[in-house]
Amino acid sequence: MTHPATPTGPTITAFETSPDRGQGLARDMRVRWALEELGQAYQVRLLSFREMKAPAHLALHPFGQIPTYEEGDLVLFETGAIVLHLAERHPGLLPLGAPARARAIAWMFAALNTIEPPILELVTARLLEADRPWSAARLPLVEARIHDRLRPLAVRLGDADWLDGDFSVGDLMMASVLLRLRASGLLDAHPILSRYVTRAETRPAYRRAFDAQLAVFRAAPR
Ligand code: GTB
User: Fold this and answer.
1) 11-92+205-219: which CATH topology?
2) Which of 157, 147, 142, 148 has its CA nearest to residue 193?
3) Which atom of ligand 1 is found nearest the CA of 19?
4) pLDDT for 18-34, tens place per residue?
């Protein structure tokens, strides 16, 4: 079954007031970036934290989070599912040949299932557990787990621009996940990956998506 987009494109949800002050770390950024790479127009519905947990939004997202994606009668949550759906519908983020396509999708899953979990652990350790008595002892373990993942990733990337040929959903998701690490300084230990992230960030589609979500923060009343 196909779901025709409205003339103005699908609607995604995003934070009305993003805690990162519009620095592109909230997950609507991945979806915006994919839409920009694919040249697709989209609408954004901004939500307050209260609205995210209200029944109307819970009907779209069982966990009351952003982003969601609405296109005709199709409703999606989870950035991996949304970005993959977009990449399958529009040319530009998945290679044409079946094996290369499968490998690009594998890299997307690697970003979400192998690289992102230890990075999220670090966020939890630094932000939510900092006042626990065991926090200082745990932090080096969490950081070591991140480096254990980043070292082989850097080896695999080597001197290539992207993970497997042309820029794909795999790179979009991997760079999105790695970006979350930049402020911690941990990425600096892996210059190959630092350069990879910078390369991704300088893509015009990334810049357009970044500017659009930064504009939300700048327009928010304070
Ligand atoms: N697995 C889901 C996906 O990929 O779609 C995760 C979605 C998710 O975590 N959404 C977050 C959310 O809605 C926003 S992106 N949180 C509110 C809640 O759970 O109640 C996570 C995020 C938030 C803020 C920053 N930041 O400020 O730096 C970065 C990332």
Assistant:
1) Glutaredoxin (3.40.30)
2) 157
3) 27
4) 999 999 999 999 999 99
- For residue 1, what pLDDT band results from cuts at 50, 70 and 90? very low
Domain residue extents for the chain: 11-92+205-219, 98-203
> Going by CA atoms, what residue is nearest to atom 25 of ligand 1?
26
Report how far ligand 1's centroid is from the alpha carbon of 158 (Å).
30
Cis peptide before 67 (omega within 30 of 0): yes
Topology (CATH) of 98-203: Glutathione S-transferase Yfyf (Class Pi); Chain A, domain 2 (1.20.1050)
Give yes or no for residue 31 CB within 6 A of ligand 1. no
Spatial separation of the C-alpha atoms in residues 143 and 145, rounded to whole Å: 5
**Residue-level pLDDT at 222:** 67
> What's the token pair of residue 132?
């626990």
